[in-house]
Amino acid sequence: RKEVEQDPGPFNVPEGATVAFNCTYSNSASQSFFWYRQDCRKEPKLLMSVYSSGNEDGRFTAQLNRASQYISLLIRDSKLSDSATYLCAVWGKRGSTLGRLYFGRGTQLTVWP
Amino acid sequence: SAVISQKPSRDICQRGTSLTIQCQVDSQVTMMFWYRQQPGQSLTLIATANQGSEATYESGFVIDKFPISRPNLTFSTLTVSNMSPEDSSIYLCSVGITGGGSEAFFGQGTRLTVV
């Protein structure tokens, strides 16, 4: 089973729509969770961290559900500029090492006018 | 965050040759990673670059093919050896500033084409 599972989409939504992405993770001991945004032919950039209590940054809301082992990203009032691929990432430890980030395969979002 | 400079940004190489990619960070970082990303695919971790010791490779990646150096806390190199067209990909350097559990930041990537 993969460490992180993410629906690849694509999601095609009109401007102003609300769209939600989900990611599930397999390691219940995971402690840190993130959402990244990747534009075409660019490197991933950190969008936001995901905290246990949920957190909001403008039109973006991230939530963590530890019981069901998933994280979500909600984008309200979509803009054309939100078109990108969104990757979830989960930090997992391996033995005595510091661990590493496990990435989902990314969800492609296209916002149309 | 950190400013990460990755070079070269792109290259076209002949099969059988090797390419070394450099990653320079503007501050000392705890962790450095090397990823590969095939077109339309997600990120695949090649290895964790350890300062002063051998890199930790993920399953499917070996030191002979992808030797990695990390002489200090701000610099690392990844070499793609004896290249074949299957090595054509984007290679990304990533750093974790504060250690285990922290977010990672990425260099701009190296777009490699092997002909």
Which key phrases capture this entry?
heterodimer, A: 113 residues, mainly beta, six-stranded mixed β-sheet, globular, B: 115 residues, seven-stranded mixed β-sheet, four-stranded antiparallel β-sheet, 50% strand
Radius of gyration of chain B over all CA atoms, rounded: 13 Å
Count every helix of chain A, treating DSSP H or I runs of 4 or more residues as helices.
0
Number of strands of chain B: 11
Task: Compute the average pLDDT of chain A.
Answer: 91
Share of β-strand residues of chain A: over 45%
Class by SSE composition of chain A: mainly beta
Report how far apart the termini of chain B are.
36 Å
Largest interface here, residues on each chain?
A-B, 23 and 25 residues
Order of helices and strands of chain B: EEEEEEEEEEE
Say how many strands of chain A there are: 11
Order of helical and strand elements of chain A? EEEEEEEEEEE
Shape of chain A: globular
Could you report the average pLDDT of chain B, rounded to the nearest whole number?
93
Major sheet details of chain B:
7 strands, mixed
What is the percent of helical residues of chain A? under 10%
What percentage of amino acids of chain B are in beta strands?
over 45%
The major pleated sheet of chain A works out as: 6 strands, mixed
How far apart lie the N and C ends of chain A? 38 Å
